[in-house]
Specification:
single chain; mainly beta; 5 strands
Length: 80
């Protein structure tokens, strides 16, 4: 897990965190961006049907997310 600083004009002025492990992470995020192809064990929020599907590298999911758990890959979760 690594913290990320982002520019204010990116829409993510509160920063974010990179996850590339298989632990369960809790927080309050508005965007999940795949840094490498990412498969989720758990993705809790207002977007459904994502677990077990692969989010291609460079793709983003927008919504309200509270739990991120990866089966593989790497993502950056942008803070609300």
């Amino acid at each position: 897990m690594h913290n990320v600083n982002v520019k204010q004009n990116s829409g993510a002025s509160n920063g974010g965190t990179i996850f590339s492990d298989t632990a369960s992470h809790s927080g309050n995020w508005f965007r999940i961006e795949a840094l490498s192809a990412a498969t989720f064990t758990t993705l809790t929020g207002n977007v459904t049907g994502i677990a077990s599907n692969t989010l291609p590298a460079g793709s983003s999911l927008y919504g309200s997310f509270t739990v991120v758990e990866l089966a593989g890959g790497a993502v950056v979760a942008y803070n609300n």
